[in-house]
Write a structure and sequence with these properties.
Layout lengths: L9 H22 L8 H15 L3 E4 L2 E3 L4 H8 L1 H19 L7 H26 L7 H27 L6 H33 L8 H16 L3
Antiparallel strand pairs: 1-2
Helix pairs in contact: 1-4, 1-5, 2-3, 2-4, 3-4, 3-5, 3-6, 3-7, 4-5, 5-6, 6-7
Length: 231
């Protein structure tokens, strides 16, 4: 989904740049509440994993590309604010060192993949987790569903930006069909990978999974209550 230089006009690119800067600034403050000495190394590992998966690109058409996003995976493992920082760092490195996405489009790419995908995915994750039983086994399926929704949501957001300030000679309907259609397929793959990775981490270190913290707290409270009950 990396947007190249010149695909959107200057006002749209500037506007998404402002949104990206504001989003990263807010995320810097929010990440302080999510990270500690145990989870900070996990953020680095998540960023490295997302970087590796995003480097596998295939063309969608009209100068854009498709790949896994990793926003929901990052949000569930290390928290939504930290996920925004992880995705933004990955996109910055890809842009400057690998020419993956244009420099003038960096704000657009961060807005789409680092903010929209993470925000939509985290919201869906919380909604699905609230519906499912409050067990650790519900965290991975909720993450998978959220990942599935987040990818086409980001593609749809890109289509909206193109409708406002698209510069390429492509019919909006054709672009929307290609982007949303292909990214729905990508979302299925992302859902599978996200569910498997979250399940694997939960099996080994559930205490490191940010999205599982409410369940872990509830289990701890229940255990303490049980222990305090008179025999």
């Amino acid at each position: 989904m990396h947007v190249p230089d010149g695909f959107l006009d200057a006002p749209t690119s500037v506007a998404t740049g402002v949104v990206a800067v504001a989003g990263v600034g807010i995320a810097l403050r929010g990440a302080r509440r999510e990270l500690d000495e145990r989870t900070a190394p996990m953020a680095g590992l998540v960023a490295a994993f997302v970087f590796a998966t995003q480097m596998i690109n295939f063309p969608v058409g009209a100068g854009t590309s498709g790949h896994l996003l990793g926003g929901v995976l990052a949000a569930v493992l290390v928290g939504p604010w930290t996920a925004v920082l992880c995705l933004s760092t990955v996109l910055l490195v890809q842009c400057l060192l690998f020419a993956d996405g244009g420099i003038t489009a960096l704000g657009t790419n961060i807005t789409l993949m680092g903010i929209v995908a993470v925000a939509v995915g985290w919201l869906v994750f919380r909604l699905v987790r609230a519906v499912l039983p409050p067990r650790l086994s519900s965290v991975a399926p909720a993450a998978a569903v959220a990942a599935l929704v987040s990818v086409p949501a980001a593609a749809l957001a890109f289509t909206g930006l193109y409708a406002l300030g698209g510069e390429a000679p492509i019919p909006l309907g054709s672009l929307a069909t290609a982007m949303v259609g292909w990214h729905t397929v990508i979302g299925i793959g992302e859902a599978i990978i996200t569910g498997l990775v979250v399940s694997a981490v939960l099996a080994v270190r559930p205490d490191l999974v940010y999205g599982a913290r409410p369940v872990m707290r509830a289990r701890t409270l229940e255990l303490h209550t049980t222990q305090e009950e008179p025999a």
